[in-house]
Amino acid sequence: MYRYDEFDHKIVTDRVNQFRGQVNRRVSGELSEDAFKPLRLMNGVYLQLHAYMLRVAIPYGTLSSKQMRMLAHIARKYDRGYGHFTTRQNIQYNWPSLDRIPDLLEELASVEMHAIQTSGNCIRNVTADQYAGAIADEIEDPRIISEIIRQWSTFHPEFSYLPRKFKIAVTGHKNDRAAIKLHDIGIFIVKNDKGEIGYEVHVGGGQGRSPFIAKKMTDFVPAEKLLAYLEAVMRVYNMLGRRDNSYKARIKILVHETGEAEMRRLIEEEFKKIDASKMLSLPEAELERISAYFAPPNYENLPAQSDSFEAAKENDTEFNHWVKTNLVPHKTPGYGIVNISLKPIGGIPGDATDAQMDVIADLAERYAADEVRVTHEQNLVLPHVKLDDLKDVYDILCAHNLATPNIGLISDSIACPGLDYCNLANARSIPLAQEISSHFADLDKQYDIGELKIKISGCINACGHHHVGHIGILGVDKKGTEFYQISLGGSADEQASLGDITGQAFTEDKVVGAIDTIVETYLSLREPEERFLDTYKRVGMAPFKEQLYAD
Asked: What mean pLDDT, rounded, does the chain reach?
């Protein structure tokens, strides 16, 4: 895990002091809200429906137990006892008082955390695979280059006032768990024929009003040249990106309107200029220095099979269910990767109380090499847990409503804050997610359905990633009434695809029934071992649409 140096400490401390002065001027009335808006956005502060909201950065989704305890402390002291983990591996607090936010940020800084560049038209928090450094067959830990990108992009003077916000994601595994093709820049770590590690770069992905899958711009950029290539992408976007229309200001629109081939040429042309200057060549020594922060923990030499673990599975049916859904094999014998569901039946997706965060911090410190990860699907991960310890971990999670065995199942939905909090939303997301979760509460039914990802957005901005849900749900407003548009067949993995709209939208009271119809149609059509997404790709929209609109 990366640790701040003296420059990091100074940057964050100076920013806190600067923002304290700005907040004081806003509270006193010296600054109007319009004048204050760009200043607060640079510090992760939004004005939502009922109060200010603060978004805290969790770079590439990695936390220490000390940092998690601080997040719990902030939830208790400055908010209403909970935080909301987001689809970009951050955490949001929905109720902080503006005049106390500088104190909050000062406490965050004490554990090497901040809210810088979590909002505004800049390069946002870099995200990565939540299993980084723990999963087998990984080419390289993506957090290493993610940290280098974070340092390069923080306070970058040329990219502090971009046409619109800009998001980067990185994965080092063939199975994409970071949704890289749905980002402005998505990076696959690859290995060439010579065995050299480099980067395959995709540009122009994104959701919202105009969703696009990113286009591959290059097959291979050597490690020492990646920053130069990213700089080239950013320069092209900064020069040519639309500033006259906020809806058309994202790089996805630039790629679409310019054309894939021409965009590739423009980037390559700029890249050659930057590369020739050698100013952004990454020294091998610096790469090694950063890599050392992400050295694996001191794993014990353990047998691949744990007798106590196997006995616990045999003797405890519920534990065995949890293992099947929430445990992922680790690259090291005798260890496992534990997924902690923040989707209890009937609960609010992504929310965790201060007490739950404290418990997770304790578990990380005691059982998981002092690490917690945040997933883009609004869950948490303990990345390095001994199989021998799994039953103890499970029992503690159970005692705090954190052991729901539903990772990847229909009740493990993504949902944005929606109209309960957000002033951009057209409809509520949270109550709908709760209704769907409760309707499909029966675990046997969930296991029978299998992998099925529901994603809910309260407006077209798509913070709930509805475009790439196996079943996507979008809240729309029709003359003051909340309706929900349903799409099928989306996916955020390495085979990324955008969902197809079924047709006419549904009122809130009809949505759960519609989802039930979709599920039952799938169950009647699937072939053995076929997932919902596989069935949909095989049979298409027609049979689902026929059943949905039969009346």
From this structure: 97
